[in-house]
Design goal:
Elements (H helix, E strand, L loop, with lengths): L8 E6 L2 E6 L5 E5 H12 L4 H6 L4 H16 L8 H7 L2 E5 L26 H13 L4 E5 L9 H9 L5 E6 L9 H7 L2 E5 L5 H8 L3 H14 L5 E7 L7 H12 L2 E6 L5 H4 L1 H4 L8 H16 L18 E4 L4 E3 L12 E2 L5 H6 L7 H8 L21 H9 L15
Helix pairs in contact: 7-9
The structure holds S-adenosylmethionine (SAM) and iron/sulfur cluster (2 copies).
Length: about 425
């Protein structure tokens, strides 16, 4: 079999060894510089694994290289992958089919509900988009908005998708419109329901989501549980009004509500940007949290007698295996990168199958912009040894780049020449 590095593997030389990070599955390992050189020579000379193994003189060396190949294969570091097939099997589509909403959350990144951003699509156009999404046979489809349950075509779209899609069907809702009439059907139709709460009581929730929302959401969660919803994930955005309640929020979800929880980072977009001064957490130095956390992980791993602490590798799947479609059918890499500069196309104008699986979207201007923000391409980070470990989100990279934090980064460790 042809020997080839996975396209999504990145290398960081470090003294006598090379760190190999797979951004497709976030797996990683160290190999010696000597092995790295041997592998690169073998790839250049189009040798097979067997030819490389056989080229060693002693049985001990052959065994060592054989084991190295086993590990590299196991971690998906090498291999002649069919990326289109791989992406096809793992495709996740998030569809914000409406921009309308019954709430006006202070942080809403979409500024939903204001009719500022233009007309909603007609029912036929929504069905056309649903058809095109289902024809991709994605692994998951997530309906979001705006508020999906506030839209008059919500159940039509749900039924239409369910009639042709067997994968993970997910819903993101503010939970305020769940009632005795719809709870059982919601529980039945969706594999997972994400509900935003953004607080631990009426007072804290009201600061973000408005008055009398908290009670309605808790009632909605209880109704879904009563009707046997398979998976409920309750979320809170980490901002000034909620930061001090994070632990109480986790306890509320786990102990009182019996649901999973998620704490989201606050994005300074839409109304989040307009209300930034009121919502944003007080500034921290960029790596203060990360450094503490990494130190703790390292100490924990040392305590467990693990041989070596392995960091978390950047592994964003936006515009690779995950796409976001907005209420006008516009395609973006993800909900955070939904601005014009990241626009990849429009579902209503594209042959979606060809566009996604034959990677036509990679020719768009928006994809070009996305590439610029990948850590290994970004001025400032591209020659830094920390580039695979600093970030999880491209939106975060963009923000730190634009604010000048990266230019003045004191954590930078340059590659040796
Ligand atoms: C835009 S909402 C749409 C679905 C539904 N209306 C809801 O509130 O859950 C999807 C998710 O994005 C989150 N969100 C909105 N604005 C945000 C922001 N500025 N930063 C981070 N998350 C945000 C919401 O809290 C919610 O969990
Ligand atoms: S976060 Fe959700 S509920 Fe709140 S205004 Fe935005 S779309 Fe509506
Ligand atoms: S320059 Fe700073 S932000 Fe960029 S990768 Fe290095 S340590 Fe991270």
């Amino acid at each position: 079999m042809k020997l080839i590095w996975n396209e999504y593997v990145h290398f960081i030389p470090d003294k006598e060894r090379v760190f190999v990070g797979n951004t497709m599955n976030k797996d990683c390992m160290f190999i010696t510089k000597e092995c790295y050189q041997i592998l690169n020579d073998a790839i250049k000379n189009e040798l097979s694994e067997k030819q490389v193994i056989d080229s060693f003189q002693t049985e001990k060396e052959r065994q060592y290289v054989k084991e190295l190949f086993e590990i590299l294969n196991q971690k998906g570091m090498i291999g002649d992958f069919n990326y289109s097939e791989l992406f096809r099997d793992n495709l996740k589509i998030t569809w914000a089919f409406t921009d309308q909403c019954n709430l006006r959350c202070r942080h809403c990144a979409n500024s939903s509900g204001e009719m500022k951003r233009g007309k909603e699509l007609e029912k036929e156009e929504l069905f056309e988009i649903a058809d095109k999404i289902c024809a991709l046979h994605p692994k998951s489809i997530c309906l979001t908005g705006g508020e999906p349950l506030y839209n008059p075509y919500f159940w039509d779209i749900v039924d239409y998708i369910k009639s042709q899609f067997n994968g993970d069907f997910r819903l993101m809702t503010n939970g305020t419109l769940i009632n005795e009439e719809n709870a059982s059907k919601l529980a039945e139709q969706f594999f997972s329901i994400d509900i935003s709460l953004d607080g631990v009581d009426e007072e804290s929730c009201a600061k973000i989501r408005g008055k009398h929302v908290f009670g309605k959401v808790i009632l909605g969660i209880k109704l879904l549980k009563k009707h046997g919803a398979e998976r409920i994930v309750v979320s809170m955005v980490d901002c000034r009004a909620t930061h001090e309640h994070i632990q109480t929020f986790k306890d509320l979800c786990t102990n009182e509500l019996g649901v999973k929880y998620m704490v989201r980072a606050f994005d300074r977009v839409g109304r989040g940007e307009e209300n930034r001064s009121e919502l944003e957490n007080p500034p921290l130095t960029i790596f203060e949290n990360d450094a503490d956390e990494k130190k703790e992980n390292k100490q924990a791993s040392i305590k467990k007698n693990e041989k070596r602490y392995m960091p978390d590798v950047f592994g964003c799947k936006a515009a690779l295996m995950e796409f976001y479609i907005d209420y006008r059918g516009q395609i973006f890499p993800c909900p955070v990168l939904d601005s014009k500069e990241f626009l990849l196309g429009n579902v209503l104008q594209e042959d979606l199958e060809q566009y996604i699986f034959e990677r036509k979207y990679m020719e768009s201007k928006g994809y070009g912009t996305l590439l610029q923000y990948l850590p290994w391409n970004l001025p400032g980070c591209s020659d830094c040894k920390n580039q695979l470990f600093c970030y999880t989100c491209i939106g975060d990279i963009k923000e730190k780049y634009e604010s000048g934090i990266i230019k003045n980064c004191s954590e930078k460790i340059c590659f040796e020449n």
